[in-house]
Fold these 2 entries.
Entry 1:
Amino acid sequence: MNKNNKLLRITLTALMAALCYVAFTFLQIKIPTPAGYTSFHLGNVFCVLGAILIDGVSGGIAGAIGMGIADLFDPAYVLTVPKTVILKFFIGFITGTMAHKVLEIDEKENADKEIFISILIGMLFNVAAEPLLSFFYYDLILNNTDKAASYLTIAKWTTTLVNATLTVVIGSALAIAIRKRFKR
């Protein structure tokens, strides 16, 4: 990879991290529950967008940094920073690996279906991993069994599923539209 591509990759990763932060912080609907807050947000959209436009590692780093910093500055989420960093990195990594390595979107002129499938797989990982990792994080690391149990409730699963659905729809539409111009 030449110097300009490295600079472009770093710049795009930083841009996606900033967009993850903005989308999570300002495009969020917080929902109070008896066990704390959950929220609808669009932060994952830019994590998967980075994974499709750049690669899985860059998309994962963008999501981890952007939403990790967002959690750090929000008192409702400050304790979840380590969990967020891990989850968001793997969302990007899985999405990008599926897109670029398994479904080989870089070799195809029209990869709309492959982009959709890659983002769907990344978000299916999130739907399964978010509640389970949250449960173990709160139970084993923070020793808060009540909070851990709350992550297995319908409210937490519902918001995770809605966020994943929004990410698949919006992320796929953006990635397909931008990728065509980006390839030029």
Entry 2:
Amino acid sequence: MKQIIITIILSAALPIMLQAQLGKNILNRVKSTAENRVINKSATKTNEVMDKIEGKAATTKPKKEERSSSQTPAESTPKPEGEQKTNESSAKNSDLKLYAKFDFVPGEKIIYHNDFTGEAMGELPIGWNSNGTGAVATFSGVLGNWVKLNQNSMYLTDNKDSLSENFTVEFDLLLHRSNPKEPFPMMAFGVLASGSYSPVANELLKNYAGEFCTELKIQPYDNNGSHLHLQTFTERSKHLTTDIKKWQEMEQHFNKTIHVAMQVQKERLRVWFNEIKMYDLPKAIVAGSIINQLYFDVKRYGGPDEEVGYAIGNIKMAKGLPDTRHKLVEEGKFSTTGILFDVNAATIKPESNGVLKEIADVLQKHSEIKVKIIGHTDSDGSDNTNLDLSRKRAEAVKQFLIKEYAIDAARLDSEGKGEKEAIGDNKTKEGKAQNRRVEFVKQ
């Protein structure tokens, strides 16, 4: 009888207990859903604010994927130059306005260029050296191939040529993070002189400050706490050290490309992140240093490498200091690889503004000069598409000078020559980069 009563009581109580548990689960789920909606709404609002700050137009539809604006024609393998339609204007005016004060001008001769096209995925680029792990990879939402850098690892490129006392270094930096709760480790990069060692020697992985090096440390943080710190070393001793510089905007660039540019003019060192000049140091470089390598060093103490870290793309090193006025006014011809365009298009990239500003300045000061602007491409793609694209790019430069710098249209002419007048070997990345150029010829 007791057993029957207990069974009856349990039978009656069980639905109530299940209902209570179910109610608890539902409440938890509702609470979780509400929290997620708040988070998502907050993130959406943040993105809208960031879009306004960055000058982006609001949209309710996802944008059609575009090719990386940091790539040049040979840097994109899916289609040859000119294959996709080019319905572009002469420039992205909104982006170019941000670069109005950007005065970086790349070196005259490209000695190293690597966009990691053709490299084996999941492995370090051929010729690179490291004391850790890293791999060529792609990232969702970001176009192009990248070298993923892992924690507690240093990397040396496969460059073998020495840079002159005047040179430039450029690369794209990606701060990738798939888990917003994970912190970034610290990263350092710079140029060095290998001294008696090979530029890829193992000894440099342990002691890259033995001869001379620059070192710019990056520490990304949330809540506007990101900062930078630049030092230079000679024979293991500090040659120069700066105060810690806060860059609150860094966290706005998580999962976006940052274009890093460095310019050395004898002892002077200047560094840009996108359009912002971070450093201009008159005595940062030890005179006579034979610099011949670019390195990257990722420290410890970040989140898992799979969820947070750094990647490098589109490296370019060039030596020499272009003398625009002398070349154009006195020699009658100035050629530059510093005017860049979107892939398979004639849309001028904003980081070209430093070169364009110099050319405009020469033309404004020498009103008697008339010039022909000539576009050139590498050999990727068909002759006809390259010829057409080179014409459009030359015309885009012409229109930019007219509209942005008020140069009289009667003083400018444009022409495209496609791949016909190569000055570099189209079988090498450096040669292709040298061939993708714009010339200004005095008439």
